[in-house]
Amino acid sequence: MKNGIIYHVVKFFLDNIKYLTIVEWFKYLGTRINWKGNNTDNRSVIYSRISVDIFIILKWLFIIVIAKLHLSNTLITCFVWYLLLTNIYTYFYYHVWSIESLNTENFAIDRIRRRFINLILAVGYSDLCFAYLYKITYVNEFEWHGRKVTFLRSIWYSVSNSLAANYDYVKAASDLGNSIAMTQLIITFIFITIILGKSIPQTNSTQ
């Protein structure tokens, strides 16, 4: 217990909550594929990455479809929040917390590029989910200029809010609206500061 009780509790939580994320199921199925009897570690990694890419595409399609069709109910709302929270958790775990992310000795160029691509996709997906929530689920918690509610305005408000910028066409009109907007700001802060800073490769230079 040299690291104290809190450390071990937090570590246990972060190391095990990943099994509640859908992307882990995709990765598990991907690594179980045996192509022509060849199930080497390298091939497992390839299938794992392909599975992650498939999951990313599917979750983007999901939020786009429900936004386009104006679908909203309690189950969908909970699932969107689930995707939002697991989106930031997954990126944090595999790019900041896990042993592999802390080992910078094998940082290949493609791996660094892939990390930045994943960062952009994760932040973009977060903004898109909040745009859906603003326009569909919590539309009455916000003031829309001229009472004109459009998905374009919702997207611009989501992007502006994530950057702590003002967007005069949409404003929070209640405590719940302010809480949702603040939640997005906190999530983006985590992405842009802690995670982005960790994603930048470090050198051994003393200068």
Description of the structure:
The protein is mostly helical and 207 residues long. The protein has one domain (4-199). Helices cover 70% and strands 3% of the residues. The chain is built from eight helices and two strands. The protein has helices at residues 4-16, 22-31, 41-68, 74-97, 99-102, 109-137, 151-162, 175-199; strands spanning 142-144, 170-172. Strands 1-2 form a two-stranded antiparallel ribbon. Residues 202-207 have low confidence and may be disordered.
Any key phrases for this structure?
single chain, 207 residues, mainly alpha, two-stranded antiparallel sheet, 2 strands, globular
Briefly summarize what is shown.
With 207 residues, this protein is an all-alpha fold. It contains 8 helices and 2 strands.
